[in-house]
Amino acid sequence: MICEESSAIQTADNWHGKLDLVYAHPDGATQLIYAHHQAPLKVQRPFYPEGQAVCHSVILHTAGGVVGGDKLSYNLQLQPQSQALITTAAAGKIYRSNGRLAIQNIDIKVDTGATLEWLPQEIIVFNGAIYRQDIRINLAENANFIGWEITRFGRSARGEKFLQGSWKSYTEIWQQNKPLWIDRQFLPGSEEVFHSPHALNSKPVVGTLVFVGQAVSPEFIEKIRSLEQTRSISSLHLFGVTRLEHGFLCRYRGSSTSEVRNWFTAVWQLLRQSFLGRSDCIPRVWFSLKG
Fold it and tell me: Is 0.85 surpassed by the pTM of this model?
């Protein structure tokens, strides 16, 4: 494995972090063959809790959170047949802004026969944060992408609501120059938007899970809807499962991070068993999570 680290770029108390990862699959084992990181981003040493075929990686943000003016860039590549699961060591925090925009750009390339499971822990967007995230995934033929995003608006335990600032999340998934799924979300912080039934409806937690790469049958969609974790979602919260041309989509809006995390985890495990032929293997960094 080649690992390089450049000196941190920090201007006027702002971080410009970068993380480049390349995975390959020689001799039936997935290896992290290149890792270049620029503070505050870093990747832990890869590990293999389910055998050499699937490489698990954990990303660290050593500064603890993102402030206005910060820019984080990720470039991830899975070479043909490689299999990787990437998560984060802790919940992300987007702090109240000083008036400047915080940006996170994620560029992912998944080559033929490869599968990426992109499962970061949730993001907490503080009141007054100004944040934009752009994710672009390029899939080759017979490549798969599983990803989720869980966001809490405001520090609910402190009674904080997202009433100032703005949040944008743009996601694009392409395969051989064809758009498979384009998702653009924008939430301006205000009392009206926080309570509007067409926005958060006073529910501070939203989540999206997407699988793209293979056709999914209506019967599989019904399996997701009949999961015990799906049925246990509070009647005060909303969820949906949508079949896509080359996959499916799950949405959640509610008040409980643990509720959406448990549901997404159950969906992900069913997806693994049905499409990837893998058993359950919860990343070890999740065991310390609390509701």
Answer: yes
